[in-house]
Amino acid sequence: MLAGKFYTIVTQQQPDAQSVHTTIALNAQHPIFGGHFPDQPVVPGVCMMQIIQELLSGAVGKKLLIEKAANMKFLNMIDPVKQPEVNVEISYTPQENAYKATAVIKHEATVFLKFQGLFK
Protein backbone atom coordinates (compact mmCIF):
# COMPACT_ATOMS: atom_id res chain seq x y z
CA MET A 1 0.00 0.00 0.00
CA LEU A 2 1.41 3.36 -1.04
CA ALA A 3 -1.07 5.64 0.74
CA GLY A 4 0.44 7.53 3.65
CA LYS A 5 4.06 6.93 2.66
CA PHE A 6 4.43 7.39 -1.08
CA TYR A 7 1.47 9.76 -1.37
CA THR A 8 -1.12 11.45 0.81
CA ILE A 9 -4.62 12.56 -0.08
CA VAL A 10 -4.95 16.36 -0.13
CA THR A 11 -8.58 16.56 -1.26
CA GLN A 12 -11.16 14.07 -2.43
CA GLN A 13 -14.59 14.58 -3.96
CA GLN A 14 -17.22 12.27 -5.38
CA PRO A 15 -18.97 14.49 -7.96
CA ASP A 16 -21.46 11.68 -8.60
CA ALA A 17 -22.14 8.11 -7.49
CA GLN A 18 -19.68 6.58 -9.94
CA SER A 19 -16.65 8.84 -9.89
CA VAL A 20 -14.00 10.05 -7.51
CA HIS A 21 -11.64 13.01 -8.02
CA THR A 22 -8.60 13.12 -5.77
CA THR A 23 -5.65 15.46 -5.41
CA ILE A 24 -2.64 13.69 -3.97
CA ALA A 25 0.70 14.97 -2.71
CA LEU A 26 3.70 12.87 -3.69
CA ASN A 27 6.51 12.26 -1.22
CA ALA A 28 9.63 13.18 -3.22
CA GLN A 29 11.76 11.82 -0.35
CA HIS A 30 10.34 8.29 -0.61
CA PRO A 31 13.05 5.58 -1.05
CA ILE A 32 11.55 4.50 -4.40
CA PHE A 33 12.99 7.63 -5.97
CA GLY A 34 16.52 6.68 -4.88
CA GLY A 35 16.42 3.90 -7.44
CA HIS A 36 13.99 5.45 -9.91
CA PHE A 37 16.13 7.52 -10.53
CA PRO A 38 18.84 9.21 -8.42
CA ASP A 39 18.97 12.96 -9.12
CA GLN A 40 16.12 12.55 -11.66
CA PRO A 41 13.09 11.21 -9.76
CA VAL A 42 10.25 9.74 -11.82
CA VAL A 43 7.07 8.12 -10.50
CA PRO A 44 7.15 4.50 -11.73
CA GLY A 45 4.22 3.42 -13.89
CA VAL A 46 3.43 0.56 -11.52
CA CYS A 47 3.04 3.11 -8.71
CA MET A 48 0.60 5.14 -10.81
CA MET A 49 -1.47 1.99 -11.33
CA GLN A 50 -1.32 1.15 -7.62
CA ILE A 51 -2.56 4.65 -6.75
CA ILE A 52 -5.56 4.19 -9.06
CA GLN A 53 -6.26 0.79 -7.54
CA GLU A 54 -6.10 2.13 -3.97
CA LEU A 55 -8.28 5.17 -4.68
CA LEU A 56 -10.89 3.11 -6.52
CA SER A 57 -10.91 0.51 -3.72
CA GLY A 58 -11.52 3.29 -1.21
CA ALA A 59 -14.33 4.78 -3.30
CA VAL A 60 -16.25 1.50 -3.61
CA GLY A 61 -15.42 0.27 -0.11
CA LYS A 62 -13.76 -3.02 -1.03
CA LYS A 63 -10.29 -4.22 -1.94
CA LEU A 64 -9.91 -4.51 -5.70
CA LEU A 65 -7.20 -5.85 -7.99
CA ILE A 66 -6.57 -5.06 -11.63
CA GLU A 67 -8.14 -7.81 -13.71
CA LYS A 68 -7.54 -6.33 -17.16
CA ALA A 69 -5.88 -3.24 -18.57
CA ALA A 70 -7.71 -2.63 -21.85
CA ASN A 71 -5.93 0.63 -22.62
CA MET A 72 -3.03 2.23 -20.77
CA LYS A 73 -1.10 5.24 -22.07
CA PHE A 74 1.81 6.83 -20.22
CA LEU A 75 1.99 10.25 -21.84
CA ASN A 76 4.41 12.19 -19.61
CA MET A 77 6.69 11.47 -16.69
CA ILE A 78 5.81 12.70 -13.20
CA ASP A 79 8.73 14.36 -11.45
CA PRO A 80 7.61 14.60 -7.78
CA VAL A 81 9.78 17.69 -7.27
CA LYS A 82 8.28 19.60 -10.22
CA GLN A 83 4.74 18.21 -9.72
CA PRO A 84 4.42 17.56 -5.99
CA GLU A 85 0.63 17.36 -6.37
CA VAL A 86 -1.34 15.61 -9.11
CA ASN A 87 -5.02 14.99 -9.75
CA VAL A 88 -6.43 11.50 -10.15
CA GLU A 89 -9.87 11.34 -11.75
CA ILE A 90 -11.61 7.96 -11.82
CA SER A 91 -15.00 7.07 -13.30
CA TYR A 92 -16.33 3.56 -12.76
CA THR A 93 -19.27 1.36 -13.61
CA PRO A 94 -20.23 -1.64 -11.49
CA GLN A 95 -20.43 -4.88 -13.43
CA GLU A 96 -21.00 -8.46 -12.31
CA ASN A 97 -18.40 -8.88 -9.49
CA ALA A 98 -16.20 -6.17 -11.04
CA TYR A 99 -15.80 -2.48 -11.84
CA LYS A 100 -15.05 -1.10 -15.27
CA ALA A 101 -12.93 2.00 -14.74
CA THR A 102 -11.50 4.93 -16.66
CA ALA A 103 -8.79 6.99 -14.96
CA VAL A 104 -6.61 9.99 -15.72
CA ILE A 105 -3.63 11.26 -13.72
CA LYS A 106 -2.84 14.87 -14.55
CA HIS A 107 -1.65 18.24 -13.31
CA GLU A 108 -3.42 21.21 -14.87
CA ALA A 109 -3.19 20.67 -18.67
CA THR A 110 -0.46 18.00 -18.48
CA VAL A 111 -1.77 14.43 -18.64
CA PHE A 112 0.55 11.75 -17.29
CA LEU A 113 -1.55 8.60 -17.60
CA LYS A 114 -4.79 7.54 -19.26
CA PHE A 115 -6.20 4.16 -18.23
CA GLN A 116 -9.20 2.00 -19.05
CA GLY A 117 -9.65 -1.41 -17.49
CA LEU A 118 -11.41 -3.82 -15.20
CA PHE A 119 -10.95 -4.27 -11.45
CA LYS A 120 -12.17 -7.23 -9.39
UniProtKB/TrEMBL annotation:
UniProt name for this protein: 3-hydroxyacyl-ACP dehydratase
UniProt-recorded Gene Ontology molecular function terms: lyase activity
Residue span(s) of domain ApeI dehydratase-like: 13-101
Domain of life per record: Bacteria
Upper lineage: Bacteria, Pseudomonadati, Bacteroidota, Chitinophagia, Chitinophagales
Pfam families, alphabetized: ApeI-like (PF22818)
